[in-house]
Amino acid sequence: WNLCHKTIISDDVCPRCNGHPETNAHLFYHCRASVVVWDLLGFNPPSPLAAPWLSPPRSAAASPMLWSAVVIIVLWKIWDARNSVVFRHVSLPPHVIVRNILADFTLWSHRLRKVDLRVAATAWRDYLSSRV
């Protein structure tokens, strides 16, 4: 909406699916392109107001310790893929987005100092790697 308001883009239709108005809920949770990313990761798209934000899905089989970081990275890479379409006219396939999620998570996890967080990060990296 903001880019449309600033006339950077001409309408508020989702640039990834071209089928719905682009809202936060659509972009991150309902757009088919985003749903495929969540599915590839083995997660149901979490509702922005629902309790699933608070704990990882059972399918992950990884520590709940870094679940919020995983969600943030997934949302960031969905946003980044959207911007790739808008600003570079490049549409990233869902499997590439998942690979980018793994790469960002791996880079971020190397900065962890506490042993228990590093162990949790390794479990999440293993899980995410199994989904690529």
From TrEMBL:
Supply the name of the protein. Answer: Reverse transcriptase zinc-binding domain-containing protein
Q: Which organism is it from?
A: Brachypodium distachyon (Purple false brome)
